[in-house]
Design brief:
The complex is a heterodimer. Chain A is an alpha/beta fold. Chain A has 7 helices and 11 strands. Chain A has 2 domains: 186 residues, P-loop containing nucleotide triphosphate hydrolases (Rossmann fold); 67 residues, no CATH class. Helix content of chain A is 32%, strand content 26%. The longest helix of chain A is centred in the C-terminal third of the chain and has 17 residues. A two-stranded antiparallel sheet of chain B has the order 1-2. The chains are: A alpha/beta, B mainly alpha. Adenosine-5'-diphosphate binds next to strand 3 and helix 1 of chain A.
């Protein structure tokens, strides 16, 4: 049987990595969340971290973001070692993390506000991204007036408006309903195409990972490790409507499920 | 309140009933200590313009606002810092809890010895009455903060000062305002108790004067004014609290 995907090891060395994780170990007291993990994230692509809950996906993402310190090992972003949060990375949170006392406009501009961008300038940028994520007309609304899906669009616009090279997304669509989620996934594919950014995308949904990713890193717990790296090849350039019918898509989904099923109680 | 099913009475109409009862007790001549309500009202209007009253009001206002100012300006940051730092919390919490429930009135004589029989002692008394609940509420507000808001701010490059001003303060604001409202009510107590014990400034002096001369209508008139002022301040803060209620429930 011909494997429909190639392992990362066989791709040429010329691939330029925006983010490299080298031998990262992270312990919370006695709990070893990550052990000696090494992983590369090619520039301009979307890499998914896929695995059952508790296998250290959030931990890895926060270490890359500079929000958590690894116990050992290092993270390189554009060749430089990460020592803390930086303007080259932006985070999209699972629970949106919006300021409930601030309007959509201020929330979207908040990253720029913290970076000291003048009000008129940052609001002009925010306005552009608010329209870009489809929230035009909601600039003056407050988070509690929006649906879950709209709130995450605000979170996304905030991350886009600081124009970071790397977008870190921690299960960004897990708190929104199924229809909204599908729309998000299509929009995400367009973003990867149009925004020249590197996306690191955490999910626990196999279908979602296969649908949106250029590269999927499958993480397994106890001990936490990268068990497999899959690069879907054939359907990436197809129309968004046809991906879910593509034989390669279906094969990869099946493949991943068979390697993960033993970890599901 | 509805009367006969259709007439809506304005809030606190029941006070009219109590005023009527007061009038009856006053007119019955049961005790000289309670003059009729109408007499108190008339006295109230006569007293309000007098230099003695204006002076007392001024002194009380200065002591009250200065005391509340210090309680807020010191209390809120201390409470926020306690909520953020485990170490500071362990150090200060026992003291805050102790002072919150301590009979502070007993401390006033000590304060008089330390700071003299004047404004300074009264301001400090007022602050001591108000500050503990403000600290505790600010602390509670910070402790319930959504961790991912803090991480969000950090991930976008917030300095600790940014986080303090733009996240912690606002996230804790509903609790902070609740604490300030209770603190202000306690401050009213503090400023009056301070003045009564020291009794040569503000309403303390006035009360001394009236009660020494058995001017009961005057005494009650001044008391009414004080109650009304405390009530107004508390209502004002409650209105402020309602303005942040929209996000208090959805943090
Ligand atoms: N702050 C923490 N303290 C202790 N253990 C933690 C902490 N955060 C995560 N863990 C543990 O580390 C492991 C990985 O967690 P996490 O990175 O959140 O996994 P995932 O995002 O894949 O569900 C889990 O076993 C979790 O219980
Ligand atoms: Mg997680």
């Amino acid at each position: 049987m011909v494997m429909p995907q190639t392992e990362r090891a066989f791709t040429p060395d010329t691939v330029d990595d925006a983010v490299t994780v080298k031998r990262i170990t992270k312990s919370y007291g006695a709990v070893e969340a990550l052990k000696n993990m090494t992983l590369s994230f090619p520039r301009g692509e979307l890499t998914s971290l896929l695995g059952p809950s508790g296998c250290g996906k959030t931990t890895l993402l926060k270490i890359i973001a500079g929000l958590l310190e690894p116990t050992s090992g290092e993270v390189l972003v554009n060749g430089r070692a990460v020592t803390g949060p930086g303007p080259d990375r932006a985070f999209v949170f699972q629970d949106f993390a919006l300021l409930p006392w601030a309007s959509v406009m201020r929330n979207v501009a908040f990253g720029l506000e913290l970076r000291g961008v003048a009000q008129s300038e940052r609001e002009a940028i925010a306005e552009k991204y608010i329209a870009h994520v489809g929230l035009k007309g909601f600039e003056r609304a407050y988070p509690h007036e929006l649906s879950g899906g709209m709130r995450q669009r605000v979170g996304l616009a905030r991350a886009l408006s600081v124009d970071a090279d790397v977008l870190l997304m921690d299960e960004p669509f897990s708190a929104v309903d199924e229809q909204t989620r599908r729309k998000f996934q299509e929009d995400l594919l367009n973003l990867v195409k149009t925004e020249n950014k590197t996306f690191i995308f955490v999910t626990h949904s196999i279908e979602e990972a296969v649908y949106v990713s250029d590269q999927i890193a499958i993480l397994l717990p106890r001990p936490s490790r990268v068990s497999q790296i899959i690069r879907p090849q054939g359907f990436r350039d197809k129309d968004v409507d046809n991906i879910r019918r593509d034989p390669e898509y279906l094969d990869i989904v099946d493949d991943i499920w068979s390697s993960l099923r033993s970890y599901v109680e | 309140m509805l009367v006969l099913g259709k007439y809506r009475l304005p809030g606190m109409s029941s006070l009219l009933l109590w005023a009527l009862l007061w009038e009856i007790v006053g007119r019955s001549g049961l005790t000289f200590f309670v003059p009729p309500f109408s007499e108190v009202c008339v006295t109230l209007f006569n007293v309000i313009g007098t230099p003695a009253f204006v002076k007392a009001l001024q002194e009380t206002a200065v002591a009250f606002f200065a005391g509340v100012f210090f309680a807020i300006v010191i209390g809120i940051p201390v409470g926020i810092l306690m909520g953020k730092s485990r170490l500071l919390d362990e150090l200060l919490l026992p003291w805050v809890n102790m002072f919150l429930s301590a009979p502070l009135t007993a401390l006033v004589p000590v304060l008089m010895v330390l700071f003299g029989f004047g404004m300074q002692a009264i301001i400090i008394t007022t602050t001591l009455f108000a500050i503990w609940i403000i600290i505790l509420n600010a602390r509670a507000g910070v402790m319930q903060i959504n961790r991912s808001l803090v991480e969000m701010a950090r991930s976008f490059g917030a300095t600790p000062m940014d986080a303090f001003v733009k996240i912690y303060f606002w996230a804790a604001l509903p609790e902070i305002l609740g604490g300030v409202r209770i603190g202000v009510i306690r401050a009213v107590k503090g400023v009056i108790i301070g003045q009564l014990l020291i009794s040569i400034v503000g309403f303390g002096a006035l009360f001394e004067l009236y009660s020494a001369n058995f001017l009961m209508a005057h005494f009650w008139a001044v008391l009414l004014v004080l109650f009304a002022m405390a009530f107004a301040v508390s209502e004002l803060l409650a209105a402020l609290e309602r303005r942040v209620a929209y996000y208090a429930a959805s943090r």
